[in-house]
Amino acid sequence: MLQSQRPSRRIRTLGVALAVLLGTALGVWHNRRERQGLSDPVTSAVGTVTSPFVGAMVGAKRWVSRQAGWLVRGRTADEENRRLREEVRRLREQNAALLEASATAERLRKQLGFPQTPPAPKIAADVLAYRPDPMFDTMVIARGSRDGVHVGSVVVAPEGLVGSVYATAPTTANVMLLTDTNAAVGAMVQRPESRATGVARGEGDGTLSLLYIPRDADIKVGDVISSSGLGGNDGIYPKGLRIGTVVQVGDPGAGAMRPIRVKPAAPFGRLEEVYVLR
Amino acid sequence: MTPPGANWRLPLCVAIGYLGHLVLSARLEAFGARPHIGLTVLAVACLFAGPNLAAFLGFGLGLLESWAVNQYVGSYLVSRSVAGFCVGAMDQRIFRDSVPMAVAAGAVTTLFADVLFFVFVPQPESIRWLTRTLGSALYDGGLAIPIYFAVRRVVHPVRPV
Predict the structure, then answer these.
(1) Domains of chain B in sequence order
(2) CA-CA distance, B39 to B37, in Å (whole number)?
């Protein structure tokens, strides 16, 4: 194309100028709505239109991976079956013991006059996207404000705590994972001899740090960490949810606290469904 | 310059590319680097678009990312629009419809869009951010090759002689 036939510079830059102006305006509007505790209608509308397609693609991907997995794992199925039967037997025994202990604890709580706390109702949600932007540890789930999910709702998996909802649209919600650098949860050591409390904070590299644990606290590698029901992000996490396992206990040196690393219990990258506590 | 039908085919490519990114990119992580399939499709699609359409494609990708992350909405919209525009506004004397250009566009667009985003939203862990971005840019450069052939096929469908 000859130089004289090219559109003028003003016309060539018109599109990007409009996009920048509109983008800035939408960004400011989104932040203002967020501060007021309201969802942004533009991103909500995008989510409402997009989520069915994402859901269909996720379903297709799972179907393909199941078929491929069946082909790959066909030979080892017998061995896996044996291992799973053994695990079911062991878990049944453990479950019976735990049910007995739970009933005893409940009876004693009643006798001592502790308030009874019924378990929070849960709703199941499909995971639509895991870490859509690799810079942030977030995920998108296929339940939104229409299903009763709200900002601050706690998200769990069978293995442990996943995170909390920070934004909702009618049919989807955005979850901040425990491992995000902006996430924090009140935590405690589950071992009865320790019960040290602190705050578990995401490190952005898939692990958590346990902060504010005194240097003389009884804590060791392998200890299970669960939520304490105190502090963290506005104290929204109920007590007793499994957070992870201590993998490293560092030397405190001259500091008041020991550097402690925790590996999260929930397998974030492999989650297909989660539960939202309402 | 924009091929006929590109005004609806290219936005469709970018939308499908981003949906593919949401579903697949976490599984494609290698050596700590993750591809940004959406940005790569945007870069390749903008090779076939003029500056205005390219800015519009970037804006569309920004909207989709804004929904998925639901924070820093303005930063996504502006960084993606400007990145798309820069590819679309490349001097037309450069023959853009080629594999080497697609590879360069895939890598540079990711780097440029993420650096622009970093300027708007500075990250606390700069070194980690830089390592991840460089890894993504390299990955996207390689990923641009199959995406280029796919987008080219959509933009210039084979017609029976």
Answers:
(1) 6-155 (1.10.1760)
(2) 6
